[in-house]
Amino acid sequence: NAGVTQTPKFRVLKTGQSMTLLCAQDMNHEYMYWYRQDPGMGLRLIHYSVGEGTTAKGEVPDGYNVSRLKKQNFLLGLESAAPSQTSVYFCASSYSRPPRFYGYTFGSGTRLTVV
Amino acid sequence: AQSVTQLDSQVPVFEEAPVELRCNYSSSVSVYLFWYVQYPNQGLQLLLKYLSGSTLVKGINGFEAEFNKSQTSFHLRKPSVHISDTAEYFCAVSDTSNTGKLIFGQGTTLQVKP
């Protein structure tokens, strides 16, 4: 049982390049989320999904796109990377929502540097 | 809209001393509250959660937190810390919409010194 797996773990991009971060969960979780973590700012929600085929914007969606074509996968895309997108990206999933809510399962993160 | 404020960015403490990490939240409706821990170069792990019922909740590794509705606080405590508790701690509040979104605080770095 792998939980939440993020690939890649590290990546260096040049400004203007594109890439896709993959999040895969094997727990049959309905809800999936992408956060970015920056020093002193905690975790900020980029996009999220409440089920297969659905996505929605979070707090900081600009410059990112997502897709949830399969229930187990949630992809985060950067179409034209900028240095401001240098960050650690975390994917999380959950089985349910409040009140039947027990928190998230997190992946181990992707450290992205844009030069 | 909900928000979370962690009142200390860094908390240095000696080994075997007690510690309290402070978290205040703002919300006009009922909330669910969480504490997560992040060890260096790892993802976040759930320490404990408050969903309903007793306001004193116990978590893993000897941590506990108390939900105080009147003061809108959810402070994390441990009576005696170990070196291995050195990590970053995040307080989070649930969005009460049907999305399951969590709103995180800025994080508190706990530095346990020998």
Task: Give your account of this protein's structure.
The complex is a heterodimer of chains A (115) and B (114). Chain A has strands at 4-7, 10-13, 19-25, 31-38, 42-51, 54-57, 64-67, 73-78, 87-94, 105-106, 110-114. Chain A is mainly beta and 115 residues long. The mean pLDDT of chain B is 92. Chain B is mainly beta and 114 residues long. Chain B is 0% helix and 53% strand. The chains are: A mainly beta (115), B mainly beta (114). Chain A binds chain B through residues 4, 31, 33, 35, 40-45, 48, 50, 56, 58, 90, 92, 94, 96-99, 101-104, 106-109, and chain B through 4, 6, 9, 32, 34, 36, 42-46, 49, 51-52, 90, 94, 96, 98-107.
**What does the main sheet of chain A amount to?**
7 strands, mixed
* Overall morphology of chain A: globular
Shape of chain B: globular
> Strand content of the residues of chain A, in percent?
over 45%
Q: Largest interface, and how many residues on either side?
A: A-B, 29 and 27 residues
Q: Specify the helix fraction band of chain B.
A: under 10%
What value does the Rg of chain B take, in angstroms? 14 Å
- Global structural class of chain B: mainly beta
User: Topology as H/E string of chain A?
Assistant: EEEEEEEEEEE
**Which stretches of chain B of 5+ consecutive residues score pLDDT under 50?**
none
- Over all CA atoms, what is the radius of gyration of chain A? 13 Å
Number of strands of chain A: 11
Helix/strand-derived category of chain A reads mainly beta
N/C terminus separation of chain A:
36 Å
Q: In percent, how much strand structure appears in the residues of chain B?
A: over 45%
Low-pLDDT sequence parts of chain A: none
Q: What is the oligomer described by this structure?
A: heterodimer
**How many separate helices of chain B?**
0
